[in-house]
Amino acid sequence: MSAPPIKERKPVKDMQKVFHYTDTMSRKPTRDNDPYEYMAGFGNRHQSEVIPGTLPAGQNNPQEPRFGLYTEGLTYSAFVAPRYANFSTYMYRVRPAAAHNGYKGEFPNKANIENCFLTLNPKVATLAEQGEWLPFPLPEENERIDLVDGLHTLGGSGDPNLREGIALDVFMINADMDHRALCNTDGDFLIVAQLGNLDIQTEMGKLFLQPGEICVIPRGIRFAVRLAAGHHVARGYITEIWGSRWELPDLGPLGGHGLANPRDFLHPVAFIDEELHEDWSIVHKINGVYNAIQQDHSPFDLVAWHGNVVPYKYDLTKFSSQNATSVDHTDPSVNCVLTAASRDPVTPLADFLWFGPRWDVASNTFRLPYFHRNSATEFLASLYGNGLGRSDDFLPGGGSVETSFTPHGNFSQEYVWEMRNQVNEPRKILESMLISSVCSIGMND
Ligand SMILES: [Fe+2]
């Protein structure tokens, strides 16, 4: 038997053709245009210093920290939480957060936030059918909308007071947060960039976020969102979770690797503002209401920090997808990027899913999503491309929702073609497309 002919192996130059926007042959763990350095790993304790030697050795709270800094602690979990769920960060900063000029209470704003999704709230109602949103409208040129003013809630479940629930928000902005930082005391923000590049400054350092990337800002961390150079408008989605935290899903029989790999989660390095003595407003979102704290110094004055309450980012194009290679349709849970547990031990509060470009290879199989009625409410967002063969109105920047047990599927000619004519050869699907999804039990609208 003769050997097969030798084909010339051509190195991949365009990483988008292999579903991956990061140059895997480079040492840089991000896309080329990302200006920042990061520390890799999920759930680790990290440490970072602007000035080497700032972190105290062998203790957390020295009598006199170096350079006249103040030690400030932040606990995210209960003090006595078991180790796997124990989260805290020590900060060594120029001025403590407690040095402020008072709480200024509620202030006028243009946001439209809802956080109580219980039946007693007359402002929310359960949507008992499918819903679809056209791309959410961007701010008018004559208005100035930053992230604080640009947040709009679509739906959710529970209430942050109960420490259980979620809110789905969208944001449309055309302005930087100017001397204004946001601190969500209700829960963790999972921010999905859809349009425009974002420059996000947090107490622990800076994150660059572009369409197809996500970041998580833990509860209690102060941050400011600005438009990256050359970008004048931005849109994205936020999933906020209460009483839970985002975790990597267990992999079961997949073993130790695959889906979102821990080393692809990137954390900022310490960064200190150049101008420290300016007036700032710290906006606390407390039980869905904005309250401002005024202070005469920057909240971004950490010279060093260590801990595991740290914002992080992840490039969804790095997702290592798994799927059926013989017959049938693997459940979409195989596309879970991050999951948040609920008090029900067998049902997550929310799963954040990826639907992106991949090979489709199953034989003797109807390969499109089959008709279904799921217990979870499904929210889909098109980040780019027009995906999943949904309606013509399912466009980037919009969204769709199917509440629990809403029957749905595809009634297009494509469905009939797939059933009768599709020849089950390997093919690439969802090329140049990216869709994210949040699945959760019992969301209201
Ligand atoms: Fe569905």
From TrEMBL:
The protein's enzyme class: oxidoreductase
Q: Which cofactor does it need?
A: Fe cation
What InterPro entries does the record tag this protein with? HgmA_C, HgmA_N, Homogentis_dOase, RmlC-like_jellyroll, RmlC_Cupin_sf
Q: Which keywords are on file for this protein?
A: Dioxygenase, Iron, Metal-binding, Oxidoreductase, Phenylalanine catabolism, Tyrosine catabolism
Name the Gene Ontology biological process terms: L-phenylalanine catabolic process; L-tyrosine catabolic process
Q: What's a Pfam family in this record?
A: HgmA_C
Pathway where it operates: Amino-acid degradation; L-phenylalanine degradation; acetoacetate and fumarate from L-phenylalanine: step 4/6
Homogentisate 1,2-dioxygenase N-terminal domain location is 37-316
Q: Where does Fe cation bind?
A: 372, 378, 408
**Protein known as:** homogentisate 1,2-dioxygenase
